[in-house]
Amidase domain-containing protein
Amino acid sequence: MSIAFLADKSQSKTTKTDLYNIAAKLNISIQDGPDADAYLLFLQSMEAIMQRIDDSPDYIHPSLLPIPTTAPREFSLPKPGENPLNAWRHRCELAASHPSSSLLAGRTIAVKDNISIGGLPTTMGTFTEILCKDGNLPISPIDSSVVSRILDAGGIIKGSSTCENYCASPLSYSAATGPVHSPWRYGYTTGGSSSGSAALVSANVVQRMKKTTEGFGPTVHLAIGSDQAGSIRVPASYCGIYGLKPTYGLIPYTGAAGLAPMIDYLGPLAEKLEDIALLLQVMAGYDGIDPRMTPESPLRNQVPNYVDELSQFRSRASATDGVGLGSSFKVGLVMESFDISGLSAEVRDTVINSAKRYFSKAGATVSEVSIPMHHEGIIIWTAASRPSSSEWACQGKHGGYLSFLPPHIRPQWPPDQRMYEMLTATNPALINLIFSNPFLNERFGPATEAKAHRKAFELRAAYDRALQDYDVLVTPCAPTVAMPHPKMTADSNGPGSSIMDKVNVAVGVTTNTAPFNITGHPAMNVPCGYSSGATTAGSEDDILPIGMQVIGKRWGDITVLKAAAIFEEGRRLAGA
């Protein structure tokens, strides 16, 4: 390792005491003398280099500069009465001055609050004082790649949507601004961490299905979320809409705060399948910046026309009255996914029965397939991502390869007592993440994490083998229907929920979704039914959505969309 230069000792505050303390933490003892003098000089030289970078002007990649908009980039907090679900974080009205296409013309979009929007803060669902000490949230100087592409396609960004604290919860109670409520039933989870995005889209479904003008405030046609363990698919499942985690490397993650590069995805949420295809088409393709993208990632001009391909596929239904739409299409029900802890009988039976009935009705073949390693998927995901996640998410560490992290996002590190208390009260899973990092590094070291990465390849191969015989695989998505939020604060009725109260409701929620974040396969929630139970009032209006997960071959995202179209056609033919 070369040394750029040797520092002027007189300009440094680093002393031999600092050197001795560092060495002691590494179980090394250094005696005073020439060796200590040399290593001290090396530290002082490194200090000078880092200080020089810290003092220099930052650089904004030209392709991430905010694109011109029709009005100034202004934002506001939601006004009283327009945010009853707590799904909005900041409001805006952004439209490109000169979009290059009209693919999204007139369509309104909400963007999850861990994705950079030029001119707006990015809070990652956490507390202002963790992001800045003066109370003035840093403003993003960049548009993330997906935001630029949405605006360039004529979309109208209406604001940032509430997300879970540091995006580290599969449920929707942990945001610093408070729980996000389901439009299906107030006080119930929307799922997380793309909680606000799912709520703002599904509110339209609820209003139409229940024939109500219930005041949900402003909603949107489409939304963008991020997904590290199921954070797009789980909210989509609880909220009864589509949510796609695409193939790893298909959509650039540039400009978004992540949990770990290996498991970071951005993707669309929408009520209609065609809109999922449309947003995928707009956002996909190599951006030249995100190191998550691979040689397999298509260039922008090579992105498939998902909208046209889906439309042409659907047109087969009119020629055959739908019965042959699924002809030669094979669906595999992953039996291990129906035998997981916490899976409700209602969700299990609904997914199995609806998959068999509706895929078959449209001409597809549905069979059971055993993938024993699926039971190990959540274990491998945890071991491969947990040891380092706090470094990426909480400390803002880069990936070790050339990357462009959002320059305005610098959360507090190291934590202090105040930070511990705030996060324990809202999202104790995040404190667990912070504690896990030094514990696992000390107890196991990097070798076990590296082995878990190798096991991820083994898990990928297991799914790939099954996908040689089936076009898609099917599992339940969320293991239950939406449940009530834990009690977040003490009141006259008693104390707030404990750490275990908050964590227990989230245990097992991502068992069927997280494995595909480490294997890279595209996976989408497809609404497949509703709970049969009602509240004590016995009202049919109290049904809650159930979702199934459809998984395809890597880079076979269009096949996942076609599978959903077959399922929809089967429902139509069955009169469901």
About this structure: The longest strand covers residues 523-530. Residues 63 and 320 are 47 Å apart (CA to CA).
